[in-house]
TrEMBL record:
Keywords: Signal. This is ASP external chaperone domain-containing protein. Residues 85-182 form the ASP external chaperone domain. Residues 1-21 form the signal peptide. It comes from Rheinheimera tangshanensis. The keyword Signal applies. InterPro entries: ASPCH (IPR040536).
Length: 183
């Protein structure tokens, strides 16, 4: 009985291996064109020019309530209107509600001003709140938290200071952008 089961298992594995090794028929290849995207020097250069992570700050765009920007809106993002600013903030400071572009996907996003934090321990979360003026939005367990930065804070400097404090294992700045689901 064991010998028969072994033979059936080997036959099944052999069949699966041969199925995986078969090539797509020319008829099917016509229906589903292959999307191949090679990493080029342009792609790498784009990421090098990012302001933080894979995001590039767009200082000439701002978010406004849709009711106020009825005629001048260039689109919507997170339920608010995207408007062209007349005075451009060129200092490169990332603040809450800043509009950014993901250099990998090309999509626009909004900086929320929240930090996702994996702390060393529960006491570290309390010290972060005291030292950096962060407000706890939500905690999960005793080491994971989402915290809101103070109003008007330079978020890139804040996130670097939090990382260098030694109180966290990981800290990330949250950006809201369009979510794509795989087919």
């Amino acid at each position: 009985m064991k010998f028969k089961l072994t033979l059936v298992a080997l036959a099944t594995i052999g069949t699966m291996a041969s199925v995986q090794a078969t090539e797509i028929s020319p008829e099917l290849r016509k229906l589903t064109p292959a999307k191949t995207e090679a990493v080029t020097s342009k792609t790498v250069k784009k990421v090098e020019n990012a302001d933080f992570g894979v995001y590039k700050l767009l200082p000439d765009l701002a978010l406004a309530p849709a009711s106020l920007a009825a005629g001048s809106a260039e689109g919507t993002l997170s339920g608010r209107a995207l408007v062209q600013q007349t005075t451009v903030n060129s200092d490169g400071v990332v603040k809450t509600d800043a509009v950014v572009r993901n250099l990998l996907t090309g999509e626009l996003g909004v900086v929320t001003g929240r930090l996702s934090i994996l702390a060393n321990d529960a006491a570290a979360l309390q010290r972060l709140q005291q030292e950096f003026g962060l407000k706890s939005v939500k905690t999960i367990g005793n080491k994971i938290a989402i915290m809101q930065a103070p109003a008007g804070a330079n978020l890139t400097e804040l996130i670097e200071s939090v990382r260098k404090s030694g109180l966290v294992k990981e800290a990330r700045l949250d950006v809201v952008e369009k979510l794509y689901k795989p087919n």
